[in-house]
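dumping this here so i dont lose it
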């Protein structure tokens, strides 16, 4: 079916049924929940096919997060959808003022390949909860998950409510030529700029969930064994193909060697406990080659054995890394651990503040002053103190970037706010009509008016 035809059908459906009732939205969310539950094994199999994820990792980082998001809205949508009364100034007495959360209309959601199920479904859930129709564009580089999503959605929802468009760059370009009421994009900063440019032509509001080089600070007070274990978990999840993965480590030079040894031990333990054949693979040959090029010429302290045939890129620790090295000029998006050092904490913070704004910040420290300095002085979208990556699983923390790492927030209530806008309503009284606001404006009236504006 032609994109313009689908979009036209969605606009008619929205126009005829807007605003979607609370019951309709809840029923749709319940059906999504049922579909995820009944297709858990199929979803895990698709993720295994696309990225070689284990069943446990697929549930932990994708399926479970989607189920939690739906459950949140099933419990909270009624409250979120209520009109909200706001104060009315005395000068406008006795009127009433309130806000009504209102859906945008036809929404385009474009998802990436690294978490191809979760990053399709979580924004979809928010868009449906807020009362929109949706065209969903999964990633072409994760074809098994894309096909499964198209099947699940196509067989259970009318296309005028939710429609999945499969394909690659041609389909992406065709979608961006259409006029949507809202666009939600997750992907690289490079493509994000093109999406924003396309939206600007129609003044379409949008959310960009991008990435960047998220720093991981380790100071001399840190519990190194715990820090290494948690850094390794955050970095090796999905073989490092995570937008909020700790991108590089910057450590107090006095403890650098101790941290490197702790990282090596943590990686070896992680891989042993994960079991053979369960480490995720790099999505395609291009990205595998890109990672090899980033590591070329660097001082490798530890590395597993890579397999280009299966695109298995094993963890790698790089020591004595320079700030201007190739591995420090772009988001790594793979299991490479560049280790840099600092002598002065304050100078290191000042240097990080000059770099592009990252999606996440991680600091491992028991010094409260260091924690507060990093959190207050550095720009970032979200942060973990003495942990990594797990902030994404808290639905009460809005998720998103700042600057080059993105704009806009979602997850939980933030998703509802993203996919709706507030209509501001002022209901004036009819039985009372104070004359002071109408001309002629005498000195007495002006004096009376000035009492209300201070």
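and the seq i came up w/
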């Amino acid at each position: 079916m032609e994109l313009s035809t689908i979009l036209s059908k969605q606009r008619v459906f929205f126009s005829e049924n807007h605003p979607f009732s609370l019951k309709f939205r809840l029923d749709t969310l319940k059906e999504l929940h049922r579909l995820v539950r009944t297709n858990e094994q199929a979803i895990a199999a698709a993720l295994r096919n696309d990225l070689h994820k284990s069943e446990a990792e697929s549930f932990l980082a994708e399926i479970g997060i989607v189920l939690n998001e739906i459950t949140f809205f099933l419990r909270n949508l009624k409250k979120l959808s209520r009109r909200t009364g706001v104060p009315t100034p005395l000068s406008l007495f006795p009127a009433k003022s309130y806000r009504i959360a209102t859906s945008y209309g036809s929404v385009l959601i474009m998802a990436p390949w690294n978490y191809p199920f979760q990053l399709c479904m979580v924004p979809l859930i928010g868009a449906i909860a807020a009362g929109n129709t949706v065209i969903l564009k999964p990633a072409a580089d994760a074809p098994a998950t894309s096909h499964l999503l198209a099947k699940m959605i196509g067989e259970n929802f009318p296309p005028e409510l939710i429609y999945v468009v499969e394909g690659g760059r041609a389909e992406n370009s065709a979608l961006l030529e259409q006029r949507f009421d809202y666009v939600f994009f997750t992907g690289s900063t490079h493509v994000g700029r093109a999406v924003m440019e396309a939206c600007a032509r129609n003044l379409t509001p949008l959310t960009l969930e991008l990435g960047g080089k998220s720093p991981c600070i380790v100071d001399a007070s840190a519990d190194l064994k715990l820090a290494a274990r948690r850094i390794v978990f955050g970095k090796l999840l999905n073989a490092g193909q995570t937008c909020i993965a700790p991108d590089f480590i910057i450590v107090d030079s006095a403890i650098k060697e101790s941290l490197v040894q702790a990282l090596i031990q943590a990686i070896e333990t992680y891989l042993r406990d994960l079991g053979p054949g369960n480490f995720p693979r790099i999505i395609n040959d291009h990205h595998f080659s890109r990672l090899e090029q980033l590591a070329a010429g660097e001082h490798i302290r530890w590395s597993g054995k890579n397999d280009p045939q299966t695109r298995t890129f094993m963890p790698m620790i790089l020591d004595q890394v320079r700030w201007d090295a190739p591995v420090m000029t772009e988001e790594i998006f793979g299991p490479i651990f560049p280790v840099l050092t600092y002598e002065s904490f304050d100078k290191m913070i000042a240097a990080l503040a000059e770099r592009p704004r990252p999606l996440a910040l991680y600091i491992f420290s028991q010094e409260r002053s260091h924690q507060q300095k990093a959190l207050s002085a550095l720009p970032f979208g979200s942060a973990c103190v003495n942990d990594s990556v797990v902030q994404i699983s808290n639905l009460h923390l809005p998720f998103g970037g700042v600057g080059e790492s993105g704009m806009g927030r979602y997850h939980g209530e933030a998703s509802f706010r993203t996919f709706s806008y507030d209509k501001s309503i002022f209901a004036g009284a009819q039985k009372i009509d104070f004359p002071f606001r109408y001309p002629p404006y005498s000195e007495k009236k002006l004096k009376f008016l000035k009492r209300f504006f201070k």
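The longest helix spans residues 55-81.
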